[in-house]
Write a structure and sequence with these properties.
Blueprint lengths: L1 H49 L9 H15 L2 H31 L1 H5 L5 H23 L1 H9 L3 H24 L3 H26 L12 H35 L2 H37 L4 H37 L6 H17 L2 H9 L4 H52 L5 H9 L2 H17 L5 H23 L2 H19 L1
Helix pairs in contact: 1-5, 1-7, 1-9, 1-10, 2-3, 2-6, 2-10, 3-5, 5-8, 6-8, 7-8, 9-10, 9-14, 10-11, 10-12, 10-13, 11-12, 11-13, 11-15, 11-16, 11-17, 12-14, 16-17
Length: about 500
């Protein structure tokens, strides 16, 4: 049952990513042309600012999965009910804190967003901020229900609802734009849709999972343990938000809303790219915690880590190499004139992060083993350095400098220092890990070269040819990777995934 949930959940997750990307490609140009460069930049600036509120969960998401897995393995249902009650109270308080902080920002919008914005832009930013902060507070309030579904590995329902939400959201926002409500209407529509999504999760938890809450006799020792465990994740969340959103905030203050719009296009594609890896990591997070709780050996954990990472590498490099080949004409046709720099920015962002994203399961291993302190401290230090150097780079090299600074931080922190830690402290066999990853490079290089040849033989002289070249490249990549790169497990996984999709369609 759980294996089926994971496989179908993974398929649904990647369908969601594909649908999200396809709809984004379709509707973003409409949004850009309807709002204009300045208002679209303003919208991205506010969204990236509100994203900082994600750090307020203080790492409690991971703590819930960890301790739920512990009590589930032991069969202690009473402790599970108390855990549900404790986290509901915690997330409710966080939602209230988010609302208060958000309102303070709303009333001080001119100070927060700087003098590069006009008065009208400041006023609109305040309204957008107020709506998005309400949305964020509501999300915190219902977080424990989403986590409960994840911890029970009920991915089919969760990912199906997310697919529906992902499909409806851009359609709804575009409809609002055509009615003339612009960016404020967009965020109101997104908030209403989010309320429906969160309510569906609550109903599912009570009706299908028989979720129970106990609000008495809380274990203060457990709360202290959770706070200590989560505090280091909290540091990483700060780092994550700095890496994701600080550049847009700095660009907004130093260069203005129009520059944020260009960087925002690149950041949007970067976000889609990271979701490819995050999807698989989220699916396997409960499994990692169960493996650690059961005391499985580092050798077994390394093998599992490597197996998942190879699959992630194949998926990510398909997108990376495809964008390398077709990204420039795609940006020109999709975003339009004035967004040419987004191609270079995307490559600077996604190339180095690829080697970190394939190791996202390693982050879950650290958390499960309660050995995530080093990573949090190190990432925090690197992120602060990243912000400082990016202030100089943005002034000197404009928005491309911001992406270059981010790339340098990823190479130093995420790749070199973290692999040293995995090998020497977590005792994972990283020599074996990278040997298995390197085996995939000949297939990657071969398919990329053939992809370039395809664009020479069939130049991208319009959207139709972009689609044709893209489909041809995907076919070439899958064929070459199957022939030269994939091992038996990956070939079987591909066959089973195709069977599951076709079988579901027949049914």
């Amino acid at each position: 049952m759980k294996a089926s949930q994971i496989k179908i959940g993974a398929i649904l997750s990647y369908i969601t990513i594909f649908v999200s990307l396809a709809l984004s490609m379709l509707f973003t140009p409409i949004i850009l042309r309807t709002l204009g460069k300045n208002e679209y930049g303003l919208y991205n600036l506010v969204v990236s600012t509100v994203s900082y509120f994600n750090i307020l969960n203080f790492g409690f998401n991971s703590a819930y999965i960890k301790y739920y897995s512990r009590y589930k393995v032991r069969g202690d249902e009473e402790r599970v009910d108390k855990l549900n009650g404790l986290f509901f109270i915690v997330f409710s308080l966080i939602g209230l804190i988010a609302l208060i902080i958000g309102l303070l920002i709303v009333f001080n919008a001119s100070t927060v967003f700087g003098n590069k914005l006009t008065k009208d832009e400041i006023d609109k930013a305040a309204v957008l901020m107020a709506i998005l902060v309400f949305n964020m507070s509501l999300t915190f309030l219902t977080t424990v229900f989403n986590l409960h579904v994840t911890a029970n590995e009920r991915y089919i329902f969760q990912k199906t609802i997310m697919l529906v939400k992902t499909t409806i959201n851009p359609l709804l926002m575009t409809g609002v734009l055509f009615l003339g409500f612009r960016s404020i209407g967009m965020v109101i529509a997104a908030t209403l849709l989010n309320i429906i999504y969160e309510m569906s999760m609550i109903v599912y938890c009570f009706k299908k999972l028989d979720m129970k809450f106990c609000f008495k006799n809380f274990d203060l020792g457990l709360m202290k343990e959770i706070i200590i465990f989560s505090s280091y994740i909290f540091f990483y969340l700060i780092v994550d938000q700095i890496n994701l959103n600080a550049n847009q905030f700095l660009i907004g203050r130093i260069k203005g809303a129009a520059s944020v719009a260009v960087y925002g296009i690149a950041a949007q594609l970067y976000s889609h790219y990271m979701s490819i890896s995050a999807t698989m990591t989220n699916l396997f997070s409960p499994r990692i915690n169960q493996m650690v709780e059961k005391g499985e050996s580092n050798k077994e954990i390394t093998f599992f880590f490597t197996r998942v990472s190879r699959v992630q590498f194949i998926l990510l490099t398909l997108v990376l190499s495809g964008f390398l080949i077709l990204g420039r004409p795609f940006i020109n046709m999709w975003a339009g004139k004035g967004y040419e720099d987004a191609y270079i920015i995307v490559l600077l962002l996604i190339f180095p992060i690829t080697f970190s994203l394939i190791q996202n399961i390693g982050i879950e291993i650290q958390k499960a083993k309660n050995m995530h302190k080093f990573r949090s401290r190190m990432y925090f230090t690197v992120a602060i350095f990243n912000v400082i150097i990016n202030i100089f780079l943005i002034k000197k090299f404009d928005i491309i400098g911001a992406a270059a600074g981010n790339a340098l931080a990823v190479i130093v922190g995420n790749i070199f220092l973290m692999n040293w830690y995995y090998h020497n402290k977590l005792k994972l066999d990283m020599k074996y890990f990278w040997k298995e990853i390197i085996y995939l490079f000949p297939a990657l290089i071969t398919s990329t070269v053939i992809g370039y040849v395809i664009t020479l033989l069939l130049p991208v002289n319009g959207f139709k040819y972009l689609i044709i070249d893209g489909i041809l490249y995907v076919c070439v990549f899958v064929f070459i990777m199957y022939l030269m790169g994939m091992n038996t497990y990956e070939k079987n996984l591909l066959k089973k995934s195709i069977f599951l999709i076709t079988h579901k369609n027949k049914r």
